[in-house]
Design a protein that fits this description.
single chain, 308 residues, alpha+beta, Fructose-1,6-Bisphosphatase, Chain A, domain 1, D-Maltodextrin-Binding Protein, domain 2, 2 domains, 8-stranded mixed β-sheet, 5-stranded mixed β-sheet, 15 strands, 25% strand, binds 6-O-phosphono-alpha-D-fructofuranose
């Protein structure tokens, strides 16, 4: 009798990571199932509130943030939670105090919900009870759950990057073991194109891509846009600094560090556009931002040459 495909549960066991980290990832995966169901089954709306970045909070933003907090706070697995939707860290009571600090963006790209584009939840995991003063290299795990035509979970526990697909009976089955990003690939996902009008070097980089007939793949959602680079195994995603976002738009703790770990574990490169690895950036404050260039090594090097 042929055994069924490897499940996420089996993979975590096979990876021989600590039990509490295994349980934590399993718990996050379960939360992803609930969010996936909710997205497909609720009317949309804006709560009339704003997050710390002054962005409108949609009904689902608040729901997903509360869901992640309420489950992880009482899991007995986390020491602290840092949410993209909140302006300070969420403390965990002694009764439930656990081993891992988790930074998360509960629903990245939520502005795309009303046009039915793919969006995702992003998680970054550190061992211990702090995140400030640490670099992205100290993460012990990074994962995202992407809510598209299919719900997929892409994970690294620093043993490569792997994709799991959620099936009809609620199991995550391994769909791609050892995702690999090739050294080059003519696909580009250029965030903040309006930066071209004032950032001459970004303008030059854009012209390079167009002149060399690169294929454009950009949705406005970091999760699907980087998922495209990972699953096609080539190309690059960029979000530069600009006058509006002098340090870039994307957040280090909740978006750039976890995505950089997933990309590097797949053999790709992740820098700030000046040669500095994203994973070497130290977490100095919760809402820290950075320009980000991720994908095929040679494409990042070419982008840095032009942006340099
Ligand atoms: P823009 C979504 O709001 C997000 O934080 C990322 O998911 C995405 O990469 C970026 O912003 C898109 O920004 O300027 O294209 O809307």
């Amino acid at each position: 009798m042929e055994p069924g495909p490897l499940t996420l549960h089996d993979y975590l066991y096979e990876s021989k990571i600590e039990n509490d980290l295994r349980y934590l990832i399993d718990t996050i995966a379960r939360i992803g199932k609930q969010i996936s169901y909710r997205i497909k089954s609720v009317e949309l709306g804006v709560t009339g509130t704003q997050n710390v970045f002054g962005e409108d909070q949609k009904t689902l933003d608040v729901y997903t943030n509360d869901l992640v907090k309420n489950i992880l706070m009482k899991s007995g697995l986390v020491s602290m939670l840092v949410s993209e939707e909140e302006d300070k860290a969420i403390e965990i009571s002694d009764e439930y105090f656990g081993k891992y600090a988790v930074c998360f963006d509960p629903l990245d790209g939520s502005s795309l919900i009303d046009v039915n584009f793919a969006i995702g939840s992003i998680f970054s995991v550190y061992k211990g009870d702090s995140v400030l003063g640490r670099t992205g290299d100290e993460q012990v795990a990074a994962l995202y759950i992407m809510y598209g035509p299919r719900t997929t979970l892409v994970l690294t526990v620093k043993q490569g990057t792997h994709e799991f697909i959620l099936n009809d009976v609620g199991e995550y089955h391994l769909s791609r073991r050892g995702v690999k990003i090739e050294k080059e690939g003519k696909i580009f996902g250029p965030g903040d194109i309006k930066a071209c009008s004032i950032n001459k070097k970004y303008n030059e980089l854009m012209r390079y891509w167009l002149k060399n007939k690169y294929k454009l793949r950009y949705s406005g959602g970091m999760v699907p846009d980087i998922n495209h680079v990972l699953m096609k195994g080539k190309g690059l995603f960029t979000y530069p600094s600009s006058k509006d976002n002098p340090n870039g738009k994307l957040r280090v703790l909740f978006e750039c560090h976890p995505m950089a770990l997933l990309v590097e574990q797949a053999g790709g490169k992740a820098t700030d556009g000046t040669g500095k690895r994203i994973l070497e950036i130290e977490n100095k404050k919760l809402d820290q931002r950075t320009p980000i260039y991720v994908g095929s090594e040679k494409e990042i090097e070419k982008a840095e040459e032009i942006m340099g």
